[in-house]
C-alpha cells in the first residue's frame, strides 16, 4: 500500500475473525480415547443417589468433611454414543419469529418528526420488547437533544402494532421530557386508533403508509446519517440503515451496526460493523481505534495484538480483501484502491 | 463408558465465582484431554468470554444459532491455547427472556453429542436465565462462599434444582480464608456442609491471583506455577473425572505469624 502507513490487521471472512481457529472437531470414535474412569467410591453408599435428608443425617454423625468422588455407576446410563463432528450437527431451528432485531426510527420530514415503531411479526408488544423500545427511544432522545427543537410536533407511525392507552402515554411522556409533542398517530389497527382517540390525539387509520414502511423492496438508498451524542455502553446495540456518527465513546460490549459508514468522535472500543448490508466500500473512523472487533460488509477483524504507543485518528477500510487500518491524516492521500 | 456430562455451574448469589470456576474447570478438563464446551447462559451480562480472553473472537452467539443465522459450529469460539476447549457465547444485547428453556435444551443436547463435557455458566438469581441454564443439565455444581448470604442463596438453588430433577449436585466452597476460619470469624467448610448437605467437590482458598488472571483473560489453571487456588481447581477437575483426591491442607501457616511477630521485635 502506498506510503506504508497502514497496518494490516488480522482479518478474514465473516465466520472467522483473524487467526481464530475453527478446525473441524475430530470425530472421537475410539472408546480408548477417553481413559476409563476409575471406579473409586467415596463412601459405601452412593452419595448422589441418597436423598438429601439421609445425607444430612449422615453428615451430622460424621465429624469429617465428606468428599464426593464420581464413579462410573453415577452416570447410570448406557448411552455409549461416540462424539460426533460438531459441524455435522444441524439444529432444526424455528426461524419464523426470529427476524433481525428492528429498532425504532426517528426522522424529520418537513419540519415534523416521525417516530416509526419497528415492524414485527407479532402485533402486540411483549413486555421485554416494550421495555427495550422505551430504552431505545430514551437513548435517541437524550443523545440528539441539541438538534431537537423544542415544541416540535411528532407523528407516531405505529404501523400494525397494537398499542394501548398506557403505552401511548409512556411514549408521550418520554417525548414530553424532550419537549416534543406527540400530535398525531398513524395506525392500521382499530384498537390502537380507539386508544389514541381516547387519549386525545388525532388519528389516521387504515392509511397504507407505503412510504413509511421500509419493506425490503423499497430500494437501497441509505437513510440520513444518525447522529448521536452519547456513550454507547456495554449491551447497547445501535442499528441504522445509513451512516452512524457518535460524538462520544463506544465502550467494550457495545456495538454499532450501520449500513453506511461509522464515525466515532471518541474512543472506539466495542464492535463496529459498517456496510452491514454488504457495502464493502464503507469505512470506520475513530479518534482512538481500539476495537474489540471491526466488521466491514462480510469481513471481520480483530485489532492488532500490540496497541500502538499512542493513538491518533484512524480509518478502517477494506483493501485487497481484508480490513486495514490507516492513520486518518494519511488516508486521504492513499491511492484509490483498484479492486 | 459413561455418557457425556452436562453440568450447570450455579450459585444463586452473584459474585461468588461461578464464571471463574466455569472458565477454570473448562480449561482444566480440556487440558486433561477431554473435549469441553463452555456455554455462557448469562444473556445480557456475559462475562465468560472475558475470563477466557476470547471476547474479540466472537462473531456469532447462541441466539444467532437459534435464529438460524449461522450453524452451531460457526458460533463456537475455539480456544487458541487449548483446542479441546470451545465457548458458545451469549448475546450481550438481549435480555434473558430472549431464549426459552426448550431452545436451551436443544442447543445443549446437540453439543453434548460432540463434547465430553458441556459446562453451563448460569447467571445469578433464580429467574428466567437460571431456569434456562438448568433446563438441560444432568448435574450441577453449586458454588458458594463461606458467607451466610451466599449459603442461604445456595440452599434455595439446591431446592430448585431438586425440584427440577437435577439430582446429582456437588458443592464448591470458594474463597475460603483459612486464617479467618481458625479465628472463628468465618464459616468453616463443615459449617457450610451442615447447612447445604451436598457432597463436597472441593474447597478453593481465597487468592488474589484470581483477580489478575481474570483481568488478563488467562484462567488461573494456565499458570506455570499453580497457586493454592490453582491446585484446588486442578484437584476438583480430577475429582470430577472420578479420581479420589484428598482435600488439600488449607490450614493457615503458623510459622509466618511468628516470623511476623519476630520481625516486629527486631
UniProtKB/TrEMBL annotation, chain A:
| Cytoplasm is among the record's keywords | no
InterPro entries assigned to the protein according to its UniProt record, in alphabetical order: CAP/MinC_C (IPR016098), MinC (IPR013033), MinC_C_sf (IPR036145), Septum_form_inhib_MinC_C (IPR005526)
- Oligomeric and partner information: Interacts with MinD and FtsZ.
- Bias kind Polar residues: ranges: 1-16
Report the sequence similarity comment from the record: Belongs to the MinC family.
Septum formation inhibitor MinC C-terminal domain location is: 228-325
Record-linked PANTHER family = SEPTUM SITE-DETERMINING PROTEIN MINC
Keywords attached to this entry: Cell cycle, Cell division, Septation
Name assigned to this protein? Probable septum site-determining protein MinC
Q: Where is this region: Disordered?
A: 1-55
Amino acid at each position: 500500500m502506498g506510503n506504508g502507513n497502514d497496518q494490516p490487521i488480522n482479518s478474514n471472512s465473516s465466520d472467522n475473525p483473524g487467526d481464530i481457529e475453527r478446525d473441524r472437531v475430530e470425530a472421537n470414535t475410539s472408546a480408548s480415547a477417553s481413559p476409563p474412569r476409575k471406579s473409586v467410591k467415596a463412601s459405601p453408599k452412593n452419595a448422589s443417589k441418597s436423598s438429601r435428608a439421609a445425607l444430612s443425617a449422615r453428615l451430622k454423625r460424621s465429624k469429617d468433611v465428606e468428599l464426593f468422588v464420581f464413579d462410573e455407576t453415577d452416570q447410570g446410563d448406557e448411552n455409549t454414543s461416540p462424539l460426533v463432528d460438531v459441524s455435522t450437527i444441524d439444529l432444526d431451528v424455528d426461524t419464523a419469529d426470529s427476524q433481525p432485531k428492528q429498532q425504532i426510527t426517528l426522522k424529520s420530514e418537513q419540519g415534523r418528526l416521525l417516530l416509526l415503531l419497528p415492524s414485527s411479526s407479532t402485533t402486540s408488544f411483549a413486555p421485554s420488547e416494550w421495555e427495550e423500545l422505551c430504552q431505545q427511544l430514551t437513548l435517541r432522545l437524550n443523545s440528539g437533544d441539541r438538534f431537537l427543537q423544542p415544541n416540535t410536533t411528532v407523528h407516531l407511525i405505529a404501523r400494525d402494532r397494537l398499542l394501548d392507552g398506557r403505552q401511548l402515554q409512556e411514549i408521550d411522556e418520554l417525548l414530553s421530557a424532550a419537549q416534543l409533542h406527540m400530535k398525531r398517530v398513524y395506525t392500521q389497527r382499530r384498537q390502537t386508533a380507539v386508544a389514541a382517540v381516547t387519549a386525545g390525539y388525532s388519528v389516521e387509520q387504515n392509511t397504507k403508509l407505503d412510504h413509511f414502511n421500509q419493506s425490503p423492496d423499497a430500494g437501497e438508498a441509505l437513510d440520513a446519517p444518525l447522529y448521536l451524542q452519547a456513550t454507547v455502553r456495554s449491551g447497547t446495540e445501535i442499528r441504522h440503515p445509513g451512516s452512524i456518527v457518535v460524538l462520544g465513546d463506544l465502550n467494550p460490549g457495545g456495538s454499532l451496526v450501520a449500513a453506511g459508514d461509522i464515525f466515532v468522535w471518541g474512543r472506539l472500543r466495542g464492535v463496529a460493523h459498517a456496510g452491514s448490508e454488504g457495502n464493502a466500500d464503507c469505512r470506520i473512523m475513530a479518534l482512538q481505534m481500539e476495537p474489540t472487533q471491526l466488521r466491514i460488509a462480510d469481513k471481520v477483524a480483530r485489532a492488532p495484538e500490540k496497541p500502538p504507543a499512542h493513538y491518533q485518528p484512524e480509518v478502517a477500510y477494506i483493501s485487497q480483501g481484508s480490513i486495514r487500518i490507516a492513520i486518518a491524516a494519511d488516508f486521504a492521500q492513499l491511492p484509490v484502491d483498484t479492486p | 463408558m459413561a455418557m457425556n456430562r452436562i453440568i450447570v455451574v450455579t450459585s444463586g448469589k452473584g459474585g461468588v465465582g461461578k464464571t471463574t470456576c466455569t472458565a477454570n474447570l473448562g480449561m482444566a478438563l480440556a487440558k486433561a484431554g477431554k473435549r469441553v464446551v463452555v456455554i455462557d447462559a448469562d444473556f445480557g451480562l456475559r462475562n465468560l468470554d472475558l475470563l477466557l480472553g476470547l471476547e474479540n473472537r466472537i462473531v456469532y452467539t447462541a441466539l444467532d444459532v437459534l435464529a438460524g443465522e449461522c450453524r452451531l459450529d460457526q458460533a463456537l469460539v475455539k480456544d487458541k491455547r487449548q483446542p479441546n476447549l470451545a465457548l458458545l457465547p451469549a448475546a450481550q444485547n438481549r435480555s434473558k427472556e430472549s431464549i426459552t428453556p426448550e431452545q436451551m435444551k436443544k442447543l445443549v443436547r446437540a453439543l453434548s453429542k460432540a463434547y465430553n463435557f458441556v459446562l453451563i455458566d448460569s447467571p445469578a438469581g433464580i429467574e428466567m436465565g437460571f431456569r434456562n441454564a438448568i433446563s438441560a443439565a444432568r448435574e450441577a455444581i453449586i458454588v458458594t462462599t463461606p458467607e451466610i448470604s451466599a449459603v442461604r442463596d445456595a440452599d434455595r438453588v439446591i431446592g430448585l434444582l431438586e425440584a427440577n430433577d437435577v439430582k446429582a449436585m456437588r458443592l464448591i466452597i470458594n474463597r475460603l480464608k483459612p486464617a479467618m476460619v481458625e479465628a472463628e470469624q468465618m464459616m468453616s467448610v463443615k459449617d457450610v456442609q451442615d447447612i447445604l448437605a451436598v457432597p463436597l467437590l472441593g474447597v478453593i482458598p481465597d487468592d488474589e491471583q484470581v483477580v489478575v488472571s481474570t483481568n488478563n483473560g488467562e484462567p488461573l489453571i494456565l499458570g506455570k506455577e499453580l497457586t493454592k487456588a490453582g491446585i484446588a481447581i486442578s484437584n476438583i477437575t480430577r475429582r470430577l473425572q472420578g479420581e479420589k483426591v484428598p482435600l488439600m491442607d488449607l490450614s493457615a501457616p503458623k510459622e509466618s505469624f511468628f516470623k511476623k511477630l519476630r520481625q516486629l521485635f527486631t
